[in-house]
Amino acid sequence: MLKSIRGRSVIVTGGSKGIGKGIAGVFAAQGARVMIAARGATAAENTVQEIAAAGGTAAFHCCDVRDWGSVQGLVAATENAFGRVDILCANAGIFPQVKLTEMTPEDWDDVMAANLKSTFLSVKACVPAFQKAGKGRVILTSSITGPITGFPGWAHYGASKAGQLGFLKSAAMELARDNTTVNAILPGNIYTEGLAGLGQKYLDGMAAAIPLGRLGTVEDIANAALFLASDEAGFITGQQIVVDGGQVLPESTDALAAI
């Protein structure tokens, strides 16, 4: 157990479903107080109830992470509920699959706003709270798609996720003066509601491409976030960690067949 997490105040954007829900649950299980930011009240309230039933502390604030005023309201609500903000898990994002020939400028802008602009807004809004606390932790949920790999239909998604990594390097330097670290997790294929919607054929194909032989779980990502948020990781900043079961390692499918 990372004892430094207990009692910390954590914002998890996109915390009502998928990886964000996993992050919220794992942090709460370690004694953190979790503010779940999401647009959908029903899923978020259900997540809060699940965390409470397991003995954790969580609250929900309706937030559109693409909007500056809404994100500022999220930080204020967290400070009102928990007294401070110690950790930001900037996880919110979307991944509609649209090939370039069908992609509209509006499709591109929607993904950039939800995935990349939201990262900037969320981090910027938390800086004053980190300064008051004397330190802070930022963990971005990026992806292997974009920074390392590509997949048809996700040019906009890949660009947004690569953009997060460009953002974090400068942000980590600027926020270091406030004793705040900024790091990113690059998930591979993680089993979530969203991934399940792509169909069993896709799921089976992705699992077959992973040396460890399975899709990741939301807890696999959450545990990495937990470490990066801890005091034990206080000298790590501006870095990225791939959590993908070895998915990006094989040179070809022949390499997997030779295992």
TrEMBL record:
User: Which InterPro entries is this protein grouped with?
Assistant: KR_dom, NAD(P)-bd_dom_sf, SDR, SDR_fam
Q: Which Gene3D superfamilies match?
A: NAD(P)-binding Rossmann-like Domain
**What residues does the Ketoreductase domain cover?**
8-193
List the Pfam families: adh_short_C2
Superkingdom of origin: Bacteria
NCBIfam families in the record: PRK05653.2-2 (NF004202), PRK07231.1 (NF005559), PRK12826.1-4 (NF009468)
Under PANTHER family, the record lists: 3-OXOACYL-(ACYL-CARRIER-PROTEIN) REDUCTASE, 3-OXOACYL-[ACYL-CARRIER-PROTEIN] REDUCTASE FABG
Q: Which family does it belong to?
A: Belongs to the short-chain dehydrogenases/reductases (SDR) family.
Could you tell me what this protein is called?
3-oxoacyl-[acyl-carrier protein] reductase
Tell me which species this is from: Rhodovulum imhoffii
Q: What is the lineage of its organism?
A: Bacteria, Pseudomonadati, Pseudomonadota, Alphaproteobacteria, Rhodobacterales
